[in-house]
Each structure stands twice: as structure tokens, then as C-alpha cells.
Amino acid sequence: MTGRQRKSHRGRLVVLRRLGQLVFLAVFLVLFVKTDYNGSDQLSAAVNVLFRLDPYLASCVMIGAKAFVALFLPALFVVLLTFVFGRAFCGWFCPMGTLLDLTRKTIPAADQKNSTSFPRLGLFFLVLTLISSAFGFAVAGYLDPFSILVRGLAQAVYPAASSLTVEFFTFTYRELPDFVNAMTEPVYRLLQVTVLPSGQKFFQLAYFSLFILLGVLLLEVVQRRFFCRNICPLGAMLRLIGKKAWFVGHGGDDACGSCRICSRICRMGAVDADRTIDMGDCNLCYECVHTCPRKIINFNFSRSGRKMPGVSLSRRRLLGAALAGVLLPAVKEVDVLAKNPDPLLIRPPGALREKDFLQHCVRCAECVQVCIGNGLQPALFQAGLDGMFSPMLVARSGYCEFNCTLCGQVCPSGAIRRLTIEEKRQLKIGHAWFDKNICLPYAKAIPCMVCEEHCPTPDKAIRFKEVAMKNEAGQEITIRQPYVVDELCIGCGICENKCPLPGRSAIYVTSAGEHRHPEKSLVSHAGYN
Amino acid sequence: MDRRQFVRDVLFWTAGLSLGVPCWKSTLLQAAPPPPRLGLAKGKDYRLLVTGALELVGGIGAFVKTGDNVVIKPNMGWDRTPELGANTHPLVVRALAELALDAGAARIQVFDRTCNEKRRCYTSSGVIDELEKIGDRRIRWEHIDERKFVPVDIDRGRSLKRWEIYKDALTADCYINVPVAKHHGLSRLSLGLKNSMGVLGGNRGHLHHDIGQQLADLATVIQPKLTVIDATRLLLRNGPQGGRVADVKVMDTVIASADPVAADAYATTLFDMQPREIASTVAAYQLGLGEMDPARMEIKTVQV
């Protein structure tokens, strides 16, 4: 009787954990979808809270920026949680972990021995990225589980799902009879107001973002939670803290004989051959407690937990990580981009100075996802090897909407400042230039004013001068040719975006004169035309 | 048979004899249709302005019948608030929607293909807010649904032969065009014909090459039953999107007419310009789409 009660009690914790995982995954997905303009200038909810909970990103950003970043205060909660409960965060909260657990049935793990393949790799990455951040090469976002997850979803999965859905309902709308549409159209409308994005977005690095996410999922083929155990630097950090957790698990003993179910089924490889539970690895999934035939595994608060052999880097590896962490930033200084930044690298309005910006940016793709005009795109090498996935404005893809401040609102690390609308409207992120070789009024004497028409500054930054010129028929005509007013252009890129020429635009934006680098101002330098 | 065809037939059957009679042509033109009616309302209450102007051209009942599918096409193409004069005033749109409901409309659709981000435009224009205040399920504001663009042959077009047009604008029982009167850098003014660009698909920037004729060509296939021009505020400079209150002149006027060319032509005079200065008006007149000479219109004015 007692045994059965205990059994159901133990099973209940597994159910509770799974339920918790699903609830947190659902909350994450709801926040993800809600990271979008909602009809008001201020966002009510955004998925950025996930990143602000991340102590790994928090430490990399703060070490890199050499400053306290208050936005990351919630990360303290995860640290405290780990001091008490070990890596419960990994087992109960982390949406990436939940996704990996959900693949269990579809991607069976090959490894039966269940010992973590590269137990020190995550720690190596952690040390490497922390040191390289300190010296100015901040790439924590490349490996952070949330960054990988949100990038993959925002830049590939979500837009692709939207495209598929729209294509399906376009087919039903155009090809199928009315009675079918009477059923499908309400469904489409419901999807539109609930989960579909308001319009189709397009991303550079869509494949790349997807492949990284898929790679993490497919590594489950090697062993359960491969990413969490072998790569995840956040996991490695929580492991260091979790080892000293107050809450400890007590495994089996010699009386178990040859039974090693607990160590075989452990998804984190936390139970060793002696059935000792390593709280640095255990993510409190409770499967072993539930499955143990003897029901002797239990968890409780204990200060006298068994001393764990610490997982630490060998001196050689530590040195390697430190060396790489210093070398990469050093080489960054001699990359040609350090001297000549890519002129097409236009940062979102409110972005910090380039160096600080990269130190803060955690490559979460939040700004890219929320950008209302689909203008922000993840960079590849435009910002250097350490600038991958950082946001840049690609005006032919989309422009920076004059009255929109969403990117600064969702940025979890302060890499993009929160701006008031008044500030935003004044902020120069780049500068527009005409390509007179192809611009219609210049090249062909054909009247056109689409750029001027869309130019959003109340004092138009694009104006006309009347010029007499011969058109292609040889007739002398008066034509209005557009030009850019240096003091007024804010570089939003709507001109480049709306230029009716097919392919290349006759007006394009560069980062020239951007607000972040006042020393390179266009206006103060005479002769810069 | 339209007017041009009539003239051609007359010339044919008289074997050119009529060419010798100089007065014939103009007599014929004047004799053909009755002068278009144009209602002009002035006053501070923008909802009453719409009712007033419509009364002068036969009331809403002359345009909207019981059970009609009505499309109201305001200009809400810019992420600008009402006082900046870039979009149709929300109260004008609301008044029209309410009148159409009273006339028994079965469904009222309100949409525009915007220049700035669509949701921002709809919100900032204030139109959504006013329509929601009516709280009637028959009113449906919607964002442009790309699936509804259909290629249309423009048989009478001189410069434009084919373009993608929003299906609902073509199939509505009553299509009401509700532009805001404003300055425009290329076409000089943006009025009713220009507002029709909001139901076009494709790359609209291409239309700017020969905009006057192309707008007129479009008007041969996009035919509003009723044009209501919102001249409550005139955007005098920096059109079509403006951005400064200083560029806006409060005019407190609404114009209504079944004749799209007449409405545009009269609205032009509010800017102290002549209808012949607007290329699209002239081109549309030459296509026989309506009257452009205010002297040949039946203009009634009411102060509300």
C-alpha cells in the first residue's frame, strides 16, 4: 500500500516536470509569436525575457562591456535557482531542452553506454567565449541555446510555416469551389489573427539559421541531450554552480547488484557506474526515481551531499581556451574591417557604437524578428567573424519605419537603446546616395519622384532641382532631378526600398554619417559631397 | 454607345459633311449628357459635411441600395495622424460607413494598399478606431489580401494596357472612392483618380512615368459610383505624405459627385489651380470619363 502510494507520488513528479516543460515551451512560443507590432507603439510582451534570464549571456555581455547591465537582472534568479536545485532550469524550463526531449521518439539515440562524449567541451567553450568577450571578440550568441533556437525559429521555421500556410490557402481560394472556401476561409482568418505573421518576411541566412537548429536537434542521434551535455556553454556554467546545489540526489548502492537502469536511462549521463548522481549534470527529470525497481533513489535538501569529482579543464585545455580567447580578439584588430568597416553595414537606430554594440549583442534575432519592415537582416561576414547574426539594415529587403521603435524595445542586452519616437525620428543611421547612372531623371530624363514621395522626414531630405536636359528623343526638356540634403537624411532606406527600378536601386544607403560615430559626420566636414 | 463612338458614327454616316459645320461638334457635346451634379458642403462637423454633400447629389440612397456590397476606399496609405492631412479624415470615412449602413448595405469593406507598413497606417490614420466605434459587424476593414489581385485588360487605355487590380474594388455593387485632397510631387495633386492607385497590385512605382494618362486609363476600369473628396484639410506642400502641420490648410469642405472627373476638377480649384493643370483630369476628360469644366457642372453648396 505504502509502496504504491510512493510509486504514484514519484510518477507524479515526472508528469509534473513534463507538464512544466510543456507549459514553459508554450509560454515561450506565445511570447515568440507576440514579438510583433500589436497596434500600439509599445510592445506589451516579447520573448526577450528568455535571454535576460540567461546567466551565460549576462556574464559574457557584462565582462565584455565591463559594466553592469541591469536588463540581465532576471539571470540572477536562474543562478539562485541553480544554487538550490542544481540544473532544474535545464530539465524543467529550457525550451531548447524541451524540444530535444520531444524528439526522443523520433530520433533514437545510438549510444547505449550513456557516458557523455565530450564532457569538457562545453566548459571549454564557456571559458573561451568568456575570455574572448573580455578582450573584444564576443561570440556567446553563436553557442547560446536560446540564440540558436530563436534564430532558427525567427529566420527560417516561422516564415517558412507562414509561407506554406499562405500558399495552401491561396490554392484553396483560387482553385477550389465556394463550398470548400466556406470552410477554409474562416480557418485562414483565425490563423491570421492568432499565429500567422502579418506579412511574409524574407531572411538572409535562413538556411544557415535552420541548419544550426536542426543540427542541435539531430545530434540527439549520438546521445540524449547531446547539445546540453557536450556543447551548451550555459549548461556548462550551470553545471559549475549545480555541483554545489543544496538539493541532492541519492542513488543506488551495492545491493542493486548488476542493475544499472538509472545510469542507462539518465538523459544527462549524470549517474555513473557506481550509481552516484552528479548534481552538476542531473537536470531533475525524475525518470530514474520513477523507473528504479527498488525505489531507493531519492532527492532531498542536504548540506552533506557526497563530494563530487569536479569536472575541470586540464591545464593544457585551459591554456588553449585562454590563448584562443586572446588570439581571436587580437586578430580582429588587424582584420581589414577594423580599418575600413563595410559601408553597407547599417545598424538599427539606437545601436551602440560598433565595438560596444558587438559586445552587447547576443545574436538573439529579436530585433530581426520584430522589424516591422523586414529591413533588419542577420549579417554574415559584413561585421567580421565575430559579427555573424548581428542585425544590419538591408534596405532593398525592407526599410526602417519612421515611427517605429520596436527593435530597441525587444533588445535584451541594451545593444540597441530604447528610443522615444521623437529621438528615433532624428537619429541618423546612414545616408542615401544617388546612382546617377541609372536614376531615371538623371540617366534618361524620365520624370520620377518615388524616393522623394516616400521620404518620411517632415523637412524632405530628398528634394528636386530643375534642370534642362535632352531626353532620349533629343528634345530639350526641363526635368526635376532629386538630390539628398545631408543634414536631413536619416538613412532609413525607404528610398532605396521603394525605388521602382528593377534589381539594383538608383538610390542606396550606406552607413556614412551615422549617429554612432559623430567623428565621421558628413555635415561637419567641408567638401564631403 | 459613348460620346466618342457617337461622334465617330455621325462623321461616318454624314460622310464627313459635318466637318464643314464648325458648331456641330460642340453642340453635340453640350447636348449629350446632363451636366454632372456636384455637392459641396462646408462646416466644422465632418460627419454632417458628408451627409450634407451627399444630400446635394441625391442622397446616399441614390448610390447604395438595400443588400449592396459596398466598398469604401479611403486614402490611408501613410503612417500619419489625421491632422497631418496625408490620409482621409477618419470621421469622413465613418460618416460614409454609417450612411451606407442606413441605406441597407449588406456588407461594407474598407481597405487601402498602403505605402508604409500596413498595420501602422491603418492605426495611425485613425480610421480603424472610428469604424470600431460604430460597432457593426457588417463593416469589415481588412488588410490587402494578395490573393485578390486579378489581372485586368484596360481596353480603352492609351498608355496602360493591363494591370493587377483588387477584385473587391471591381465587383462591389457600390464602390465609393474617398480620397483626401493633397499636394503630390509628380501629379501635382492627389485626388480621386490618384487614390485609385490604392487598389492596384504590382510595382506601382512604374506608373509614375506617365502618370496623368495612366491614371485616366485606370479610371476606365476602376469606376466608383460615388466620389467623396475629403477637403476638410488640404495638404499644400510636401505631399503626398507631408508630416508638418504647417503644410496643412484647414478647409472644412467635403465634395461629393458621381462624376469622378468633375470631383477632381472642382477640388483642384480649392488649391487655386485650374483643372487643366492636372494631367490626369485632362486625360480622363479626353477619354470621356467626365466633365472637367466647373462652368459645365451643376454645383450646389450647403453650409452645415
Would you kindly provide a written description of the structure presented here, covering whatever features stand out?
The complex is a heterodimer of chains A (529) and B (304). Helices cover 46% and strands 8% of the residues of chain A. The model of chain A is unreliable at 1-5 (pLDDT under 50). Chain A has helices spanning 2-34, 48-52, 55-65, 74-85, 88-93, 95-102, 121-134, 140-143, 145-175, 178-194, 206-218, 226-231, 233-242, 261-265, 287-291, 315-334, 336-339, 354-360, 366-370, 406-410, 421-426, 440-443, 450-454, 494-498, and strands spanning 247-250, 298-301, 376-378, 391-393, 431-434, 462-470, 476-484, 507-510. With 529 residues, chain A is mainly alpha-helical. Chain A has a two-stranded antiparallel ribbon. In chain A, strands 3-4 form a two-stranded antiparallel ribbon. The longest helix of chain A is centred in the N-terminal third of the chain and has 33 residues, at 2-34. Chain A has two domains: 1-345, no CATH class; 352-520, no CATH class. Chain A has 24 helices and eight strands. Chain A starts with a helix and ends in a 19-residue tail after the last strand. In chain A, helix 3 runs parallel beside helix 7 (121-134), helix 7 (121-134) packs parallel to helix 16 (315-334) and helix 9 (145-175) packs across helix 11. In chain B, a hairpin with an 8-residue loop joins strand 5 and strand 6 (162-166). Mean pLDDT of chain B is 91; it is low at 20-29. Chain B folds into two domains: 1-32; 35-303, 3-Layer(aba) Sandwich (Rossmann fold). By secondary structure, chain B is an alpha/beta fold. The longest helix of chain B has 13 residues, at 90-102. In chain B, strands 1, 2, 3, 4, 7, 8, 9, 10, 11 and 12 form a ten-stranded mixed sheet that branches. Chain B is built from eleven helices and twelve strands. Chains A and B meet through helix 9 and helix 23 of A and helix 5 of B.
